[in-house]
Write a structure and sequence with these properties.
Blueprint lengths: L1 E2 L3 H24 L6 H22 L7 E2 L7 E2 L6 E2 L15
Antiparallel strand pairs: 1-2, 3-4
Length: 99
Amino acid sequence: MKVRPGRERSLLAGVMALVVMVVGLVMMGGLGGRLGWFTFLWVLVGLGGAAASFYNAFSRRGLPLYEVDLEEDAGFCSQCGRPIGEGDRFCRHCGAPLR
């Protein structure tokens, strides 16, 4: 199962990536630095981060933060909600009988 961030978090991350990129460009210009490879890299990374965040916010698929492997035949206890094994008759956490 792939876990991705929520829509609000992705929107906020995209906006913040753009803000940090613009503020960084303003600060680099104010220091009298010439436009060079670092400025190009700064803009490229900022736009890449914003694009990934906006893709997560507006796409049904999105980009996962991480993946979780689950046993296919495993289930969850109806009493406590904890995972159970395939051949378990009782929950290992709360002791409830399993159906």
